[in-house]
Write a structure and sequence with these properties.
The chain has about 325 residues and is an alpha/beta fold. About 40% of the residues lie in helices and about 20% in strands. It is elongated, with a radius of gyration of 20 Å.
Amino acid sequence: MKRTLGFLIVLAALGCAVSCSRTEAGAGAPLPPPQAKNGYTVGIIQLADNGAFTDMRNGFIDKMRWLGYGGDRLKIDYRNAQGDTATLAAICQEMANAKYDLVVPVVTPATQAFVNLDSGIPVVFISVTNPVAAGIMGSLEKPDKNATGTSNLVPVDEIFKVAKTLTPGVKKFGILYNTGESNAVTTVQKAKEYLGANGYAFVESTVANSSEVQQAAEILIAGVDAIYVPIDSMVQSAMPQVAQIAKEAKKPVYGSSPVMVVSGALATVSVSDRQCGAIAAEMAHKYFTGTPIAQIPALMLKDFTTVINKNTAAALGIAIPESLASAVLIGN
């Protein structure tokens, strides 16, 4: 039986339910506070703000509170560069100079910017698509740059399999992304390999800043059957506009995170953004209670969920088949 969930419920279904099953099952109350230190100051850095990043950040903070870091035991200093890379660099340098107990960058650009400073401050990152390719660590198993965290592998093959099921008539995809984000570039390369190997045609459209996204989407949609958006903070921030353009053209958009679907994309297959943050909190707790960062392997999350926007499906005249009965449905 399909589940029809609103915005708040789907966040719980995709995030809390999974992370709770790992460490909180049967608990309900916070754990006793750890005894390693009376209090910690943690800096959280984002390049931009969007629903996915908010879920990651809240997943981290909520899990830290549950782990016993309540009240004065945890001071959070949250900084948002509002999409400006120069501001991001300034934030990272300020935090490096201030000597925080831990810095938690959200996704790849912020993580690269801070780790490259070689500040000596330990890092637990949230949701970096490919930490090795991004130069953040030599291997997932052995963190060698004082940084570890969670990685949100994007299952592009599963996304396109869902696309084939929902929209079998799609023969040509448009790929919309920012070449300045290595996580987007990595995901796009995998997408192109899959599409090429499975007989699809594709065309790319790249943007350098958020102001270019709408026009790029308008041009792209005219020559393709569907749009695919990888993990990309810049394009994700403009997903409502991209989804509306595609909806008016009666063509689907496939995204790479549940928040993209909440914003109007047709579907995705993804890990939970809240879970990425919650597991990063577990890693921070492990570090605070005595385990060196070098001994905390990065974790590639692989608990995927299919998410479909039923309102978008209805607007496009798409019937959701029984083969996707286990998908989470968003929309009233």
